């Protein structure tokens, strides 16, 4: 960092500003976490220099003997951690991992069945602005209006009607456990491949806090930077019979050279996730998300589906008459970072949705427990209810920001020294 400061104080300043932002506020974005210094060290290493197209022992460049070791260790740790027959750590992101999984099992024009984006699915699950919706005939399933849980009867009906090549489960904003066995059963009925996009919850699986999709899925795709607490990136786990197809779909089909510094950092994260402390962490993440959801309900908001089994809760703000966009802006002013989010069957437009999504991965990494989350809920509620732009509202937001600083100082992110 000294070199950066000397050579490029402008960018060094940005890095320090971001560190201070993390230290001074509450991070409640469900898809973010605070990686360890060890992961950051691998990311900021000379492994970033190396071209290594191909796979260990089968590269298109010389000089790969050293980086091969990193990838082999990473693959072995990943397979062991998840009990998977094959792992590929090269995808640059979760979206790249998904592209590879589609490419391995379907051709453009084929039908895929996945969760509706408006109800919690991801862009790569069939959105018209994404390859998944443009190149594939994407059919969407939804949650039930009464329970806000996945409508498995509808999934089966749509599968029988459309005979998709791939059925996808896993979402971006779904707080409940997914019945992988039932998805497997439906996929088998129509001879489809089952792809579980575990981007959000793979870390909870690693920590043995929720059931694993690995025994049920043909392929599991994931990000490595959410609850899993690794570097920003993607990965694919699959059965041995699909290993060749998946590897070819990652490279050379959808990517060139892997980011070897990121692959090494993923290996570091896998080792961290295999420790007993990480299992405690994963369990605490869920307890914290549940405490937060409960706290927000006590403040008059509504947790979609009545709560959460995971690291995130989807909060309907209509009972308190605030939009998701207003809540996001007010929380930002109070040093609470979260995102606005549509709720299932949201009558409001996407840029002003009725809800927010909150998550506990980062705050739990800092060391917060349920009692802290009760305090977080009460500060968040104060912020969300403060009419920004009025003298009283702005004063309230300043007070909440100060209280947030005091709260996070008890369990600092990246403690000084
Ligand atoms: N799949 C799901 C379910 C996600 O939630 C996300 C990102 O949030 C992705 C895929 C894509 O990951 P990335 O942003 O790394 O491309």
Question: Helix and strand layout, with pairings?
Answer:
Blueprint: H1 2-7, H2 9-24, E1 26-27, H3 37-43, E2 54-55, E3 58-59, H4 65-82, E4 86-88, H5 94-105, E5 111-115, H6 131-134, E6 137-141, H7 152-162, E7 166-169, H8 180-189, E8 193-197, H9 202-206, E9 219-223, E10 234-238, H10 243-254, H11 260-273, H12 276-298, E11 302-303, E12 312-316, H13 324-333, E13 336-337, E14 339-341, E15 355-359, H14 361-366, H15 370-384, H16 391-410
Parallel strand pairs: 1-13, 5-6, 5-7, 7-8, 8-9
Antiparallel strand pairs: 2-3, 4-10, 9-10, 11-12, 12-15, 14-15
Helix pairs in contact: 3-11, 4-11, 5-10, 7-8, 12-15, 15-16
The structure holds pyridoxal-5'-phosphate (PLP).
The hetero compounds bound to this protein are: pyridoxal-5'-phosphate
Largest sheet composition = 7 strands, mixed
From the alpha carbons, calculate the radius of gyration and give it in angstroms.
22 Å
Q: How many individual helices?
A: 16
- Provide the residue-averaged pLDDT: 97
List the strand order in the largest sheet.
4-10-9-8-7-5-6
Let me know the number of strands.
Answer: 15
Note poorly predicted spans.
none
Q: What percentage of amino acids are in beta strands?
A: 5-15%
Distance between the termini: 14 Å
Shape descriptor? globular
Structural class: alpha/beta
Helix content: 40-55%
Subunit structure: Homodimer.
Enzyme class: transferase
Site (Plays an important role in substrate specificity): 225
Binding site for (6S)-5,6,7,8-tetrahydrofolate: 117, 121-123, 241
